[in-house]
Write the structure tokens for this entry.
Amino acid sequence: QVQLVESGGGLVQAGGSLRLSCVASGRTFSNYAMGWFRQAPGKEREFVAGITWSGYITYDQDSVKGRFTISRDNAKNTVYLQMNSLKPEDTAVYCCAARSGGVAQSNAMYNYWGQGTQVTVSS
């Protein structure tokens, strides 16, 4: 089992920044690819970014590339999502997830999920 706990969400004005963290415990963190997903009210959960154990990164091209940066620190069992130039449409619950193997953009491919952290961007 892998337990995931997110933090760092909050209320920010448009144009501002937040840094989300996801701390993993349980099995060896470096064995897993990590993904960040988000779900806005009334919408389906969507892939934001993912990173393999070795640091290969995939972003959702349309919505966040150039504004969000994913990174991980295997020594700290932590994956980060740095979010800059935030927009009201970024408002959502952000969750991290873990899976064996490479990054996948489908949430069905992930085995472990955190509870999520709320990000609210005001206009």
